[in-house]
Design a protein that fits this description.
11 helices; 4-stranded antiparallel sheet
């Protein structure tokens, strides 16, 4: 992008105005008032950034070619309507851009579903803008929402930047990100199970370096019931007749490496309790059997094949085809413990450490592993 002398002079003038304003504020600044000084400098920098972005983008819009007629992406001829403003949310705040706007030259009955009836070529060159937000805003808000609730993310975002944001705006903004991640996960799971369907392993896969071994890998799954808006999900007959919101279970999985932490006791030197390493999550609204495929794929990406020991944690709600399926997909020699907290699903859920002993059938008895307490079993992991 080339800048002419007029733009350079305008940017220098705006920078000089911002610096003079900061110098004026210094006259009233009390000695040792670091907080006010920091806030004044930050406000001046953000204000100058908004002005610079506005000047540069408007200059680009004015310098762009503006033919009276053009061929639109929809295939129709378009005519120049004029310069129309567009407000863009950036990390520096809101900026307003003027750009050329074109409209299709077609009759109402000729308009197709692919025709947007109007287009600004500037938006495609500098964007495409999604929800009137810049890539920087999308990236920062996406990182915050991934680690916090919507309310916490919006509060943190608004406290850092001069850009008001509602929870609804944040949800609409990150929805395309979630859809892209879902498609990526679907492709990874499909590729993994297509590879597993082959009866023979390619020589290059046999000789590939899996990396350093993982001492202990934890795989956890649970579910939470969430309220859904009517019409957003398929409803049963009884739900369709009612007026209340509907509820569906969201299944969540987590995979993390157990890292030795503090010592368990002074009486047992050299024995450490596991601390969770970086945690990877997967969440889907689907059946337990289908969700198991996604959780398995996540565990593979986290190094399931490199794990010397595997611990499965669940509430038993996944059922025989779900949670028990995990026991069948994991090698008995490495699945040292499987914990289920639902009483009706407790029997047969234990595997003896480092053995291929079959699971016990029937209710727990005096000679069966389930006679041990949960705490005793957890303690055995740290030995």
């Amino acid at each position: 992008m080339e800048t002419n002398e007029q733009l350079k002079m305008a940017l220098l003038h705006e920078t000089e105005k911002a610096m003079l304003k900061v110098i004026e504020q210094l006259q009233t600044l009390g000695e040792g008032d670091l907080q006010t000084l920091e806030q004044s400098v930050l406000t001046a920098c953000l204000s100058l950034g908004r002005t610079v972005m506005e000047q540069v983008l408007n200059h680009a819009g004015e310098q762009a070619e503006r033919p009276a007629r053009r061929d639109g992406e929809c295939g129709h001829r378009q005519r120049l309507v004029g310069m129309r403003p567009k407000q863009l949310h950036t990390l520096m705040g809101k900026v307003t851009i003027g750009r050329a706007y074109y409209q299709c030259l077609v009759e109402a009955e000729e308009q197709s579903t692919e025709c947007s009836h109007g287009q600004a070529p500037f938006d495609q060159v500098w964007g495409p803008f999604s929800g009137r937000t810049s890539p920087g805003v999308q990236k920062l808000l996406g990182k915050l929402v991934a680690r916090m609730t919507l309310a916490e993310a919006v509060e943190t975002f608004s406290s850092l930047l001069p850009l008001p944001m509602s929870e609804r705006q944040a949800l609409n903004l990150i929805q395309p990100v979630g859809e892209a991640l879902r498609e990526q996960e679907d492709e990874q799971v499909q590729a993994l199970f297509e590879q597993a369907a082959h009866t023979e392993t390619h020589p290059s896969e046999q000789s590939s370096d899996l990396g350093l071994p993982i001492r202990r890998l934890y795989i956890e799954t649970d579910g939470v019931t969430a309220r859904m808006r009517r019409g957003s999900v398929p409803m049963e007959e009884a739900e369709a007749k009612g007026k209340a919101d509907v509820y569906r279970e969201i299944k969540v999985g987590a995979v993390f490496e157990g890292i030795p932490g503090r010592e368990r006791s002074e009486l047992a030197p050299g024995v450490f309790l596991d601390e969770p390493g970086p945690i990877k999550y997967i969440a889907r609204r689907m059946s337990a059997e289908a969700f198991g495929r996604f959780l398995y794929a996540l565990a593979q990406r986290c190094g399931l094949d490199r794990a010397l020991e595997v611990v499965l944690l669940g509430d038993g709600g996944m059922g025989p085809a779900g949670f028990d399926g995990w026991l069948r997909t994991t090698s008995p020699m490495r699945c040292i413990l499987s914990i289920s907290t639902m009483p009706e699903n407790m029997s047969g859920k234990w595997r003896m450490p480092f053995t291929d002993q079959p699971r016990e059938k029937g209710p727990p008895g005096p000679n069966k592993p389930m006679n041990c307490s949960l705490m005793a079993r957890l303690r055995s992991l740290s030995r």
